[in-house]
Write a structure and sequence with these properties.
alpha/beta, 44% helix, 16 helices, Rossmann fold, binds uridine-diphosphate-N-acetylglucosamine
Length: 368
């Protein structure tokens, strides 16, 4: 029997842990699958990309499209042109895209136009906010996909409402959690928190990078005002995303950051997967505007304050440890104070977030 040629597409930081779980599982079937990793190059810094491949035990990408940063249209178009060339040369049997970044959108369109079956992992999530570039990416990828692998029941419902045929939707769980659970113990053996001079469960961890939070001076200043106040009670460690770092410099907001990790907001460079997981596991709580971190904190049972107006992952609020607090400094301080006073939200782990999502996906692919 001819092996099925599978393309796993990744482009940006939150994609790498998702393809890692799939890569590991697909490799268990060497006579059925020939798997190739395609890196679009959307993220290219060592800390945003290469270190993840190292930490996650992924091989060098088989194809690297090297697109880099640009406006949304230029970046998407560049990925499409380069990906089309590889697909035409290599003729994969199936293209697998993950998440909701521009690389997901671009490669979904290319695969569909070339009539290559498309699988979308993490389908059906909706913030119902088209101001978010990722929402547009999700809606388009889902509309085009032949296989829609979902992480939660609300995603199934969203797809049903959009008229996606039931037989295309597979409720499999969360591949990002597969990776988290498989590497958690190893990450905890590191002494990342100690190396930054932090005390276990006596610091908060912050990530902030979304355009709506960092691209406007007034919004970013408001958030930093709230965080500064929180930082008077518990140190906040902040591995800073390149976009946020650029904006802090542009708006001259460096005064908000201290040079020591024992109080205030302490900026460090972006971390690899294992060090970040270590910091997350040992933190008192997490403040974030990321998507995936809302899910990871729910699984780790660590309170999470989401610095956004809405979330495409409501299951983390309904069942998990997440609270959506927006960018209002008073709300940020109020909720953080509750956690510091020992009243952090407790939660339970959503169905199928137990480390077997990739197994379920590969089972579907074996039977297609
Ligand atoms: C992208 C995703 C977002 C995801 C985030 C995780 C889209 C639309 N957005 O946002 O969903 O949450 O990744 O990080 O796909 N830069 C670097 N080095 C890099 C990458 C980026 O310096 O390796 C800088 C560049 O100045 C670039 C900016 O960061 O212009 C933004 O990068 P981009 O890939 O456009 O979007 P992210 O904000 O990273």
């Amino acid at each position: 029997m001819k092996k099925k040629k599978i393309f796993l597409v990744a482009g940006a930081r939150p994609n790498f842990m998702k393809i890692a779980a799939l890569w590991k599982e697909l490799k268990k079937f060497p006579s059925q699958f020939a798997t190739y990793i395609i890196h679009t190059g959307q993220h290219y810094d060592y800390e945003m990309s290469h270190i993840f491949f190292k930490n996650l035990g992924l091989p060098r990408p088989h194809f690297h499209l090297g697109v880099g940063s640009a406006s949304h249209s230029r970046q998407t178009a560049k990925i499409m042109v380069r990906f089309e060339k590889v697909v035409c040369q290599q003729t994969p049997d199936i293209v697998v895209v993950v998440g909701d970044v521009n690389s997901t959108l671009a490669c979904s369109i290319v695969a569909t136009k070339l009539k290559v079956p498309l699988a979308h992992v993490e389908a059906g999530l909706r913030s119902f906010d088209r101001q978010m570039p990722e929402e547009i990416n999700r809606v388009v990828s889902d509309a085009l996909s032949d296989y829609l692998f979902t992480t939660c029941e609300d995603a199934n419902q969203n797809l049903r409402r959009e008229g996606i045929p039931r037989e295309k939707v597979f409720f499999v769980g969360n591949v990002m959690i597969d990776t988290l659970l498989s590497l958690k113990r190893e990450a905890q053996r590191r002494n990342t928190w100690k190396s930054f001079g932090l005390k276990k469960k006596r610091y908060a961890l912050l990530t902030l990078h979304r355009p709506e939070n960092v691209d406007k001076k007034e919004v970013l200043t408001n958030i930093l005002d709230g965080l500064e106040e929180v930082g008077n009670h518990i140190p906040i460690i902040f591995p800073i995303h390149p976009r946020a770092a650029k904006q802090v410099k542009k708006f001259r907001l460096g005064k908000y950051f201290g040079s020591k990790s024992n109080s205030g907001i302490f900026r460090i460079k972006p971390l690899g997967y294992m060090d970040f997981l270590n910091l997350m596991c040992n933190s008192k709580f997490v403040l974030t505007d990321s998507g995936g971190i809302q899910e990871e904190t729910t699984v780790l049972n660590i309170p999470c304050l989401t610095l956004r107006k809405n979330t495409e992952r409501p299951v983390t609020v309904k069942q998990g440890t997440n609270i959506v607090v927006g960018a209002d400094p008073r709300r940020i301080v109020r909720e953080a104070t509750r956690i510091i006073n020992g009243k952090g939200k407790k939660g339970r782990i959503p169905r199928f977030w137990e480390g077997k999502a990739a197994q379920r996906i590969v089972k579907v692919l074996l039977n297609t």
